[in-house]
Structure formats: C-alpha cells, structure tokens
Amino acid sequence: MNWRLASRLSVITLAILVAVIVAVISTKADQQAANPSTPIDSSGLLGTDLGGVAAPDFHLIDQNGKQISLAQFKGEPVILTFLYTHCPDVCPLTASKLHQVVQNLGSASQHIAIIAISSDPKGDTTASVINFSKAHGLLDYSNWHYLMGTEGQLSPVWSSYSVYAVPEAAKSGVVDHTTALFVIDKQGHERAYFGGDFTPDQMTTDMQILLKQ
User: Which positions ≥6 away from 67 have C-beta within 8 Å?
Assistant: First the structure.
C-alpha cells in the first residue's frame, strides 16, 4: 500500500473514532438531561448531592402540640420541607406527592419521618395545619409533623437551611418562599436536595436507599 494512502487512511480512521466518542458522550449527556431519575450520588440517591453535612437542628411545636426536634429522629431517614397551608399551588402539590411517597413505601413508611416547617407564622394555625394535612392524606400518618412558631422562632431555621421566606410581604395570603425538600439520612446528615418538581418515585427511591444504609 502506498505510504501516502496509508497515512490518509490513518487520519480518516482517527477522525471517525473521535466522532464516535463525541457522539457517545453527547448521547449520555442528553439521556442524563432527559431522565431526572439518573443517580448523581455515589450511593444512588437521585436528588442534588448535598455532601453529607450535618443538618441543622431545630425545636418547634407540631400540629399535635408536641415539641419536635430533628435530633429525635436519629436512626430514621427524614424528608424536610417548607410549606404554608394557604399556598395556592406548589405546597398542596408537594403535600400530595409526599402522601404518594408514604403509599409507595407501604409499611416501611413507618420508619421514615416527614417534617414540614411553616413559612407563614401568622397564617399557619393549628386548625389550618390539621385541615391541610387532612386534605392531602397526611393527617393519620404518625410520622408527619408540621411545625409552627412565631417569625422569631422560624426565621433562624429558614436561615440555617438557606430557605427564602418573606411572610411580611404576603399579599392576599400568598407568601414568597423557597420550594425545597431536604433528604436527611439516619445519622442526621443532609444527603440530597429536591425542588418542587420532584416526583414521588424519585423520593421513594431515595428513602428506600437510606432505609437500607
């Protein structure tokens, strides 16, 4: 074979190989973007990796008048979120999704805790919280805790989780706040973060993983 022809064939072969590698990488990236259930945590968790830092503790009163702290749930995975009962859109949807997670887990749901912290200290009353919990199928779930307090009690918790909540700017009962769900493991470490677009299947998967750890 002519050495010039051989050289050209080598260049063409290399170009084809590079093109194939680029196409494979691009396809994987597209699949990752199209499939939010692809694990991005080395343990298989589906939410945004939070690095396993210690979750800030808190002490607040739930809908049953009981004082609740994060520390008391050591040994159980925790889903922590921030809601308000008069929310017209994302909060009711989040609560309904969490109800679906409880149903998905079946009897295993008794070994996780779901905690909602109020972002509306004036609007969230015991009565409104009980009605909200009932409306979204969470009232009879023993490990559901909707925590309330004054703005002075709640705002340090919002800050410690970098959650934005501005109840004093509320108009017509609407509170400007961050939609956030934190997945906390049995040791009290922040493991993953979800926004309001999470799916019940994603959260169910993360809880199943943490229950086994």
Answer: 59, 60, 61
The pTM for the full model equals: 0.79
CA-based nearest residue to 74, from 157, 189, 183: 189
- Secondary structure class of 73 (helix, strand, coil): helix
Residues 27 and 89 in one domain: no
Domain, as residue range, for 61: 48-212
Sign of the CA dihedral with 58 first, then 61, 62, and 68 last: positive
CB contact burial 44-71 (16+ within 10 A = b; e otherwise): ebbbeebeeeebbebebbbbeeeebebe
Same domain, yes or no: 14 and 95: no
Per-residue confidence band for 164, with pLDDT thresholds at 50, 70 and 90: confident
Tokens of 11: 């260049």
